[in-house]
Each structure stands twice: as C-alpha cells, then as structure tokens.
Write a structure and sequence with these properties.
Largest sheet: 5 strands, mixed
Strand content: 15-25%
Number of strands: 5
Order of helices and strands: HEEHEHEHEHH
Helix content: 40-55%
C-alpha cells in the first residue's frame, strides 16, 4: 500500500476518533500530497462535509485538478463523485467498495478512472463502524 492510501486511512481513523464517520481522503498532484481531509459531518453538523469535500476544501484553489489523483478510504457516494466529475479529477483510488458500492459507474461514465484496492483493513474498519453505529451510517448514506 502506498503512502497516499496510508494517509487516507489515517484521516479515516482521525474522523473515527473524533466521533465521526471513518472516511478519509487525500489529494495528490504530480506525485505530491496537496491536501488531506476526513468526514466531518458529525463533528461539524454539516451534511455535505464528506471526506473528499474536506480534503478539497483544505486544498484550496489549486488551479486545474486535471493532473490530480484523489484517494479515499471508501468508494465515493454521488455527492463526492459529482464533485470529482465537476472538477475533472481524472483518477480515484479507493480502499474498498464492499461495504458501500457508491457511484463508481457514474464516475466511469464521465471518464474518471476508478481503482478499487479492496484492502481488508478498510473493509474491516467500515464493517466494525456499521455494526457499532448503524444509525450514524444510515444517516450518512441517506437511508434513515
């Protein structure tokens, strides 16, 4: 596992330690870490502050996103995928999609390359969270 996915996982663990959803993300441009972030929906009572959104917010204005890669611990949902498509981020690398299939097809239909690493530690982290906090997870994915 490369350093960027390791950082996305660290960000997910940070969110979990703060009482949030264990999703973290990093933005990489030309092989360099630009920004990181994690899901803060619970911590900041903000329904759109998903991990990738926090990461992009932390990145600020970077000009074009066309030479970037976004890493996420979990397959992006439509909220996050829409932002990825809108900013023309060409590649997304995710830790897993077994616990949440997300919007892979949507991103691919819009020319985004999606790489699913299917990492056991990412699957385990999410499965444990869903078992411990199903109401929080269901709120996060709009299933309440």
């Amino acid at each position: 596992m490369d350093e960027f996915m390791q950082e996305a996982i660290r960000q997910a663990q940070k969110s979990l330690s703060e009482g949030g959803i264990p999703i973290g993300s990093v933005l990489v441009k030309q092989g360099r870490l630009v920004a990181s972030g994690h899901n803060k929906r619970v911590q900041e009572s903000n329904p759109i502050l998903h991990g990738e959104m926090d990461c992009l917010n932390n990145a600020g204005r970077v000009g074009s996103f066309r030479n970037t890669v976004i890493y996420s611990r979990l397959m992006p949902c439509y909220v996050r995928a829409g932002t990825i498509v809108q900013f023309k981020i060409p590649k997304v690398i995710v830790g897993e999609s077994r616990t949440f299939s997300g919007a892979r097809e949507f991103m691919e239909q819009h020319g985004v390359e999606v790489v699913d690493l299917d990492l056991p530690e990412c699957v385990e982290m999410m499965r444990d969270f869903i078992v411990r906090k199903p109401e929080l997870w269901n709120e996060d994915i709009g299933e309440l």
